[in-house]
Amino acid sequence: MKILILNAGSSSQKSCLYDITSPIPNLAPQPLWEGKINWTQDQNPAEITVKTATGAKLQETLAGDSRQVQFAYLLSTLINGTTKVIDDLSAIEVVGHRVVHGGQDYREAVIITEDIKQAIARLCNLAPAHNPAALVGIEVIEKSLGNVSQVAVFDTGFHSTLPESAAIYPIPYHLAEQGIRRYGFHGISHQYCANRAAEILGRDLSSLRIITCHLGNGCSLAAIKNGRSIDTTMGFTPLDGLMMGSRCGSVDPGILIYLLQQYNYSSQELDNVLNKASGLKGISGISSDLREVIAAKEQGNQRAQLAWDIYVHRLRAGIGAMLASLAGLDVLVFTAGVGEKSAGIRQAACTAFEFLGLKIDLEKNQQQPVDIDIATSDSTVRVLVVATQEDWAIAQQCYQLMR
């Protein structure tokens, strides 16, 4: 079964094509084809990069066209030129989409219908950087591939098992009845990493208490018990929780009231401050990219040092909160760009929990570990670095749904 996966972001559209045979493997196979569109801040030009399993590569820059036209061009590289891997787009049997927000109604992967599209559109105000981009991908596929089956896999779905004590905010209850509650995000990644951790350790997932740390430009933690999410740091929107690249994470809501009353901030100005001008970028004044912040810190930049210190403090505090929800810990997992690549962040996070008997092997931690346990043999908690495979997790759910 040939499955095309679309993973839409606010500034990028990642795609890959899998050819899955039965029985479906647990480990992610190499995609036949991988394509990505990166948009600059002004939306144009678009940088197109494509690679295939046979080593063919393509890099192009497209200017002046709409996102729909640019994405249609990306799809054309599947059947044309040196990156051709199939004879016709009709060979694709199903297209899977990562959709960030599914609200309360969509907790499992679903076949996309007109009603589903309308529901994704209604939820755009809760995930304005992501749900609209997913809709663009769905519509382009409709135009390019006709009536091919399309599947929505929701990032919020894994967290639908949160108990009400974790999901309901202490605000007037009628607001909760209107859907204002903790949804949680990065669920596809958290679920995949928990399953992969159990595989790596040769343990039954249902026997483990796991904290998964998805640390990328967006950051969130999940407390996973018996394979189910019971707590997480992101909330009603992806803005809550940990300090992130340009997002603030949790702040005193009184700050927002103060800015509204004393400085006449508009809702748009608040949105920009909290989502685009805060986090590592806002504190360091340098970048939302942790690598650039670290480089400045090592050169003696005090604001970069402060950004690092706040990031680590918030991460440790978040892990501590998840630890309390689990009432113990068997496995700590690091994943996504920062989690997989920053040995310094992993070490800084772990040293705070040495009182639990958690010990990481400093040498293993420095060796760019992938899908391995970096804890010492006598550590009471296993510490894993797992390469998240969101696209493969989506493909697995598409395969199961279509079968």
UniProtKB/TrEMBL annotation:
Entry binding sites for Mg(2+): 7, 390
Cell location: Cytoplasm
This protein's record includes keyword Cytoplasm: yes
EC number: 2.7.2.1
Keywords for the protein's UniProt record, in alphabetical order: ATP-binding, Cytoplasm, Kinase, Magnesium, Metal-binding, Nucleotide-binding, Transferase
Binding-site list for ATP: 14, 214-218, 289-291
Major place of residence: cytoplasm
Pathway, per record: Metabolic intermediate biosynthesis; acetyl-CoA biosynthesis; acetyl-CoA from acetate: step 1/2
Site note Transition state stabilizer, residues: 186, 247
Cofactor note: Mg(2+). Can also accept Mn(2+).
Catalytic site: 155 (proton donor/acceptor)
Protein family according to the UniProt entry: Belongs to the acetokinase family.
HAMAP family on file: Acetate_kinase
Protein name, entry field: Acetate kinase
Lineage: Bacteria, Bacillati, Cyanobacteriota, Cyanophyceae, Nostocales
Protein encoded by which gene: ackA
